[in-house]
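Structure ticket #2291
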Amino acid sequence: MPLSKYTEQYKYHGIAISIILLYVAPIFILGENSYFRIGDNLDSNVVWYKLLIDSHAIFASPNTIIPTIMGGLPRISFGSEFDFLLWLNKWFGPIYGYALNQLFMRLTAYIGMYLLLKRYLLEGWNVERYYIYIISSGVSLTFSLLPFWPSGGLSVAGLPLVTYLFLNILNDKDKWYDWLILCLIPFYTSFVLVYFFYLMLASFAWVYMVMKYKKFYTKFLVAISLMTIIYLIVNYRLVTGMLLPSDFVSHRQEMSIAKAMHFHMQSLQDYLNAVFEYIINGHHAHIATFHKYVIGFSLALALMLSSIARDKKSLKILSFYLVLIVIFSFIFKLWYFPPFDQVKTSVPILKQFNMGRIVWINPLLWYIVFAFSLLFIIKYVKYKKLIPFILMTFITTQSIYLFSKSDFWQVYRSGQPTFKQFYDTELFDRVKNILNKHTKRYKVACLGFYPAIAQYNGIATIGGYSPNYPLQYKHSFRKIIEKTLNNNPEMKRQFDYWGSYCYLQVTSLKNTFMGNRPKNIVIDASELNFKQMKKLGAKYILSTYELKHNQNLKFMAKVESPNKFWTIYIYKIL
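Resolution: structure written out below.
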């Protein structure tokens, strides 16, 4: 080795951390002029945190009404007050709370994956330590550059660290701080999306080991139980809502994501095709793995070289992780397979828990596969001087690829707004001034832009986005857009079988993503039920499109933005 053991480690850590800092730097430097993910982020979670904070309702009782969204939602519709992301927003504001979250996610992902690979998975192989450092730090870097869902916190980014902690406990290498970190993880992760399934798998592993090795593994069981108990405490609102009698009936009672989003998938062949496509592409809105090209090529090469060399150990290891990925992918697509809905309906527990979310563990598995693939490739390289070049080529190529898939670059390249342009507080201050001249108390309906934008600016809306709101309100809001839904079967399926979006929809805008700059066109909104809007409390429509003359509406003002992204047309509902 050209350098000492510790110097090598520090060198690669320094490079990796510098790249991570470069990845998150635009948010810290540009602030509100930076580009953030819009879907399931600016249109929802960022605003939900702000509403709780502004309403002083963080610790409010479950029935306390948060008035700004969807005519007023009960506190139970929002997340836990023990959510660390909520407190990041309260302490540092939405911009720097978001930026710090990005930094924490990526540093944790890097550190956790490095510890897992170097101290456990790649330990003991007859490979020069120098190469182990490169693989461990390089693969950890690529994992840390995944476009993790911001509101998931460490849900996916923390999986390698949690696995490392459990392995320490299982192998009696645990320290007091391992237990402390394990106890803190539930405050910064999602039990429902990820760790219910992770802990379930850990429990299966415990049962398997007890049966095979005739040893009880007490500390491992205690760790699983302790983490589960803390998750139940953190999510006490959800737990009590499920277990205790309540007048709150969620719109989720009518939900079938399979029918809403995957209606076309009806035959067994459709299902198998969907599974195959997912295994190859790994596309998912919140847990994209981007393994198809670089990781896929490294895997194929490793399998080929190991097969030629009849290296059963290498093939067995790769097969183990690939089998898990395939099984999880089959479960994932099964939960979105409409014919399987009949089974879920007949077994209540299957309806309560979306087992398809087990696929959230796949990013961890794919990047472990990447590490082993690189390890097995270099075993068969005859010219040792080429090994660092080969490893750095794979790692650098994947890192550049992931940089191009970052939220910042994706939003920027698509011409979507910055944080400042999206919420445009200056524009909506002018809108509020106009509305306040006529009445101090009002609600609005939003057309052509996310109601979250109005909510962020303190304007109460009858529409909105919530994953858990009263079923009765869904039925009431549906009457507003009933004609639109009847004209559009796809929209109708999505609203009736999912319905977390209560957005004004008109037929002429059905293919328009509300994060894009609106076109300068005049649209017909006559199919909307204005009487029902008024019943839900709306006095005005705010639209990013000029509306055709309608006897139910009175044009009041056109407000243009200095940022030149939104133009708001204000109409009074007669």
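Closing remark: The beta strands are 65-66, 73-74, 443-447, 464-465, 501-502, 522-523, 538-543, 546-547, 553-560, 567-573.
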